[in-house]
């Protein structure tokens, strides 16, 4: 397979630290070229691409092999039996040679100057984790919305729960042994939350240079999913156990983080679940928070004006859930009806 790239050039400079961009690949033939070209076309050229083919059944394997042949000094490709995105990312970390690590999903892409902005910030501050933002982009190039963190905002380090839109010091990641959790919801948080809390230095880049593709064919991008089969509670328990294993006493904003996670989960699943199951989940996860975070209803960030940097609709939803549960229950019913008919 011949490779023609748009705006991509072979590495012309090895100045600066090597950045390993880690990409789990599964049946992404339609979008993979755009993804890879966005890394090859970076203004920052000292890059290694580590692509783990997780048992793809389409043309992804051949496309990756063609890129590896065309860019042998950049591409590291490995094929494995299907084991899930977490296993693919964990393997990519093992193969990475870079001083820094950056994650990219196989249907997303970088702005051309993203890595330059990340590396410049990491070098100037000595940060072990650099956090940026993202834009939600459609097939026809429209931007649905942007999330851009800013220095000094309370929510800035947590604005992106995913592992992407960040730069990590690879020695820090390996020393601390951060890994991805093989689950079917919020698997990134097992990696991102401990890394953010463990970092002695963390920096914020106010950019939306990561493009999170609104792929209507992806199950994870549907507006509503049923809670049935999702290992949400187990994932949260595993994250809390991991923080405990690391002797991390979660600060108040992490309590808020979990309250916000539960709020999002309830809203995200209520339409597909229907009123009865949605109400069961509301009672169940309220009890889970009671067991896991004593006094969570009074946590100081559950306010319409806090935490700074989070979107207003998120702050209002958490405020209602924590402070006005009866109103939230009615709002959940209404939201579920609207979404189920929308």
Question: What does this protein look like?
Answer:
- With 342 residues, the chain is of the alpha/beta class.
- The protein folds into two domains: 19-221, Spore Coat Polysaccharide Biosynthesis Protein SpsA, Chain A, CATH 3.90.550.10; 232-340, no CATH class.
- Helices cover 42% and strands 15% of the residues.
- The chain contains eleven helices and eleven strands.
- The chain has helices at 29-40, 60-70, 85-95, 114-125, 170-176, 189-198, 232-245, 252-273, 275-292, 312-323, 325-340; strands spanning 19-25, 47-54, 75-80, 100-103, 109-110, 129-131, 134-137, 143-147, 166-169, 202-204, 210-213.
- The strands form two sheets. The protein has a seven-stranded mixed β-sheet with strand order 3-2-1-4-9-6-10, with helices on both faces. A four-stranded mixed β-sheet has the order 5-11-7-8.
- α6 packs parallel to α7 (232-245), α8 (252-273) packs across α11 (325-340) and α9 (275-292) runs antiparallel to α11 (325-340).
Could you give a quick summary of the protein structure above?
With 342 residues, the chain is an alpha/beta fold. The protein is built from 11 helices and 11 strands. It has 2 domains: 203 residues, Spore Coat Polysaccharide Biosynthesis Protein SpsA, Chain A; 109 residues, no CATH class.
Give the topology, please.
Layout: E1 19-25, H1 29-40, E2 47-54, H2 60-70, E3 75-80, H3 85-95, E4 100-103, E5 109-110, H4 114-125, E6 129-131, E7 134-137, E8 143-147, E9 166-169, H5 170-176, H6 189-198, E10 202-204, E11 210-213, H7 232-245, H8 252-273, H9 275-292, H10 312-323, H11 325-340
Parallel strand pairs: 1-2, 1-4, 2-3, 6-10, 7-11
Antiparallel strand pairs: 4-9, 5-11, 6-9, 7-8
Helix pairs in contact: 6-7, 8-9, 8-10, 8-11, 9-11, 10-11
